[in-house]
Amino acid sequence: MGLATLKKATIILPRMETQEAVSKLAELEWFHPIQAPSSTEHINPYYDDLLLKAQKLFQDIDEVVKALGIPVEAGVMATMFKGAPKGKTDYQIDDMQGFIADLEERSAKALEEPRRVIKEREGIRKHLEEYGNLASITEGASSLSMDLTSLGKLSKFYAGIFVIDSTDEAEIRKSLEDLPLYSTRLGEKKVALSVIGAAGDTERITKVMRSFGVNPLAIPANMPQNPSVAFAEATAKVKELEAAQEKLDKEIEKLTQSIITTMLSLREAAGVAKDVLETTRKPGGTRNFAVIQGFIPKEMEGKFKKLTGDYVSIVEDAGVTVDYHDAGKPAMPTLLNNKGYSKNFEVVTETQGLPRYGEVDPTPIISIVWPVFYGLMFADFGHGILLFGLGMLFRIRGQGRLSVWGTLIAASGVAAAVGGLGTGEMFGFHFDHLAILEDFANALPFVGLLSVSELSFDQVVKILAISIAIGIVHLLMAFFLRLRSDLKAGNKTVAFLHDVPIIVQYLAVVALILASIGAQYDIIDMFLTWDHNEPVPWLTFAFGNWVTVNLVAKAGPPVIFACMAITIIGGMKEEKHYKAMGKDSPHGGLMGIIVETFMVRTIEMLANTISYSRLGIMLLVHTALLVTVNNSFEHGGGLAILIGGNIGIMMIEGLIVYIQTIRLHLYEWFPKWYASDGVQFKKLVPQMLYSNLKWKEDK
């Protein structure tokens, strides 16, 4: 688990053989190319021709896929009700040239029928638009039976017919009062206004009419020039074309369903061929020799040497540490190497950003912490089972990232179900109140161990205490990860004068919080007197009876102030280091260091710790909502209230709990230690959903 160890791989070969070498690297798949800045000077014409073929092939297939309305990846609703397209197409490949030739042959056959129906549909749409426009133009004058042919033959006079709103007639007559105007009522709201004038009046007439949004009535030459006849023919043609379009749409829908996996596979395979050639188009080197460099996982070293045995190939250690940004070395890509269950939580890590190469991968930790958070906030056995079922639906019926998120949702559902066993709740009913589950609840001692059914004060305090305890452990984990990162990077000054004091200071703050609880919140007397010999929650149990409130209250403040002083000294040393390097300090001088240490950091520690109380608060809110729904049901609300209320709570609370779980990671935990500026390792051939590339072995 964690990050894969990478090695730097180099191939030196004649430039004219670049396409063969790229085929070998595509077969390897696990190759992250390094772009050479000077590579633009030398090109391989044959390689460029191959790339142009791949680009054109992908564009042709993509246009058909878009025209048919085929989604590249099935959405959430489509996955739930129909399922994502299943099945993969196998491609037997010798090299990239043969792969592209095979795709061209396959696509030529596959695209023939879709292109025909798409072209036919476009023709119908074009004619439908033309006749629809004609029907709209002549609709207002459909009751006007006269031939307009003679109007267009006048040379010394202008004559035009305009279909206007009857409310505009008076205003138009005022504007053209010196010209003869004849009106024919076409209905309650429309009037056909005939205007006659000299040829020199043409511009004035059209300007006036356009100010009212009206153009002269004009019928295309290929249609009858009688408005009444033209409208009738256009309307009939529109109905005919709409029927033909509806029939063709059904044919296209049926055709699309039969070829959807084929089209998606061709598009995906052509996209891979295009991307591979684009990525490796211009390797570095000289005019006659190319140098291809990249990173490969350590496990692929043997396969890499076998595939590139015909060329000069070198594999060496990358020799880049976690602080490569400061060292000025090239950025090493990050390849997450989690397996099985943990791999599904990489999507959460990617939400914040990838770790640097050599940094700790938070994914395995998230895979444990995430279910704990979600299970505590959404603790209900019934809701958890339903959430698990929803997740498995996405996992089984979905593809790609949606399938991964399905697994994460299913894991959250299992955690919620386990949390429901801890609280003894199922759809808001306690197990003791359900006869069918009463024996089951009595057989397991941990069922109802964290009961919240009564929402009593003691229960609320217990839930919040557990939430804060989980938060303390989570934050301490972040502080120790920061210490590990600085030690590994060789930043001993930061590690011992910042990280260690922060950990000790935080432990002291936590100890004082626990001591105040042990003193029954008599905080002032706890510091000023020696009367509090009470045990300190958790600490007395862990270290013995000698740990009392008095001891912690008197020892805590000196430890906190000592840690602050050490942190200030460390900040001053960092200031000198930044000045020596010619960089601006992020601390803002000595006063900034003091303010940050005494006020910002201490308040931040308290705020971060208290923030984890949301774990218990969300559980209490979840329980309160279910109690409200169940009370309504028991007082005559009916099954509709019970079922609808539970569905609503699942949808709203499930989303809110997800947001809160993400928030605790993104705002409370990650900023304490995680750089999140890693560069993603990009496989030369990515994971494919609809295609399998099977490379033929060399003879």
Question: What does this protein look like?
Answer:
The structure is a single chain. The chain is α+β, with helices and mostly antiparallel strands. 60% of the residues lie in helices and 10% in strands. It is built from 22 helices and 14 strands. Strands 1, 2, 7, 8 and 9 form a five-stranded antiparallel sheet that branches. Strand 7 and strand 8 form a beta hairpin. Helix 2 crosses helix 4 and helix 20 packs across helix 21. The chain is extended. The two termini are 37 Å apart. The relative contact order is 0.12. About 1% of the residues have low confidence.
Q: Descriptors for this entry?
A:
699 residues, alpha+beta, 60% helix
Short description:
By secondary structure, the chain is of the alpha+beta class.
